[in-house]
Write a structure and sequence with these properties.
CATH topology: 434 Repressor (Amino-terminal Domain)
CATH class: Mainly Alpha
Low-confidence stretches: none
Largest sheet: none
Distance between the termini: 23 Å
Shape: elongated
Number of helices: 5
Number of strands: 0
Length: 80
């Protein structure tokens, strides 16, 4: 599974926005945006904000990847 930062960066680049634009939308420094792109996890409120800012459903992306992994697990999934 790709980390969430990579998914956000891919969509951000696909849309062609600048780092400055995203930092203004998030009301943060540009360095925080670069760090965001490297993150393995993110809190849901921030992800919800990014969904609105980039008009993209990252929750759906994560859900799709989760279901694909369950369909084709590299390691057996233990279930109770």
């Amino acid at each position: 599974m790709k980390n969430i930062g990579s998914l956000i960066k891919e969509e951000f680049e696909r849309q062609g926005h600048s780092i400055g634009w995203l930092s203004r939308q998030l009301a943060c420094d540009r360095s925080n945006v670069y760090r965001l792109f490297q993150r393995d996890s993110i809190d849901t409120l921030t992800l919800k904000r990014l969904c609105r800012i980039l008009d993209h459903d990252f929750f759906s992306d994560l859900s799709t990847e989760l279901h694909e992994e369950e369909s084709h697990p590299a390691v057996p999934v233990e279930r109770d």
